[in-house]
Amino acid sequence: MRRAVFVIVVSASLAACTMGPDYVRPAVDAPARFRFEPSSTADSADTKWWTQYGDPVLDALIAEALAHNRNVMIAAANVQQAFALLEQARAGAFPQIGYATTAQRTKVPDVGLVAIIPRFPNPQTSYEALLSASWELDLWGRVRRLSEAARANALASEDARRAVVLSLVASVASDYIQLRGLDRQLAIANQTLKAYGESVRLFELQFKYGRISRMNVAQAQSQYETAAAQIPVIESQIAQAEHALSILVGRDPGAIVRGKSIDDLAMPPVPSGVPSDLLSRRPDLMQSEEQLVAANAQIGAARALYFPTISLTGAFGASSSDLSNLFTGPARVWSYAGQVTGPIFTAGLIRGQVAQAEAAREAALLNYQQAIHNAFGDVDNALVVKQKLSAQLAAQTELVAALKDYDHLATLQYNGGYTSYSTVLQAEQALFPAELTLANIRASLLASSVNLYKAMGGGWVAIASDMTVSTGAPASEHRTE
Q: How far is CA 225 from each of CA 190, 410, 411, 446, 473, rounded to the nearest angstrom?
């Protein structure tokens, strides 16, 4: 009998099948190249690209953020939780072995057989020690599909953690560049305010001695107050940028140490790559695909519910009324059983679960395809922004140079008595905002490189991930190909 049960179990296990479709990566119609791809690129997607700005302060801020940012820690904890769920799902494929011990003393009423039978023990004492085992035979692959889905969800959580790392590095770099750009604008505003203040002082002296009218003094004063009004605005933006950076690196809001000026920061090269590379370089796309894998596996788990469930149970141990005889003599007890359960009428319960799983897979597929299109758009947008900002910076630089000449010549003509002060006023009104705009464009151009590396992804995400406190997924887990 035991041999027959063993043969049945082994045969059933060998004949086991897996319900539902096996995952196949959807075909991706990727363009051969990006629309605004420059002629010159560098193989820099697998490097610490932020070090190419040449600012040790920025490097230190990114390292501090990777070590102390709370969002990264939360994402790492989510990864641990997901892999713990995977371990639980895999456990269903193996026999479950347990134990139980019981000590009981019972007294029944002294009536009936208890009163008739001589020396009937009342109360009664019993002791029992058992080892138990149970095993659900996964003939239709339900447990395997659930494990497959759990594994995909765990890998998706790891990709989500890496996406947090990607976003964190990009945010720290962008905020720091913005901060240095604001510092430059504040320096321009203070220099302009100082120059305007000197003009007001000279004009007040000239008015005192009757050389100019009060209107000229008022015009100079208005210029001074215009520059003065810009300074609190810029200072407020600087403080907010410092606070944002402080929180990103895991500190309370406070001041941020400065490194190189916005004019001294180097421009990282454009990373090389083709659109199809994004599938394995961007963690958000990898996360979307693992979610599709999980949804696909759930179809098989749902379809397996149509078929019977076969379970084997057994117990072996000892039972005795005397604790000293529990493991001796005729105290041994054992049992084993097989159980087959299956649905007959469920009023559409299983059919609804299968339909739900199929619809979830369709939604996951569309989400994956949409994420790919968005990724292509992100890179092309980053490329065109960088290209056009370069042209805008060149034009704005020429504009500022021309306005400085205009201001200088207008001042000379006014001092020589050849033109009115309104000409000088017009030149200064144009130069001050143009210089602020130039500083802003220079910062935006440097930040466009950050957005480009963020959109392209690459091996640098793994490098940054290794700089965090927890690296997330176990090394033994391999990604679906």
A: 12, 21, 20, 31, 58
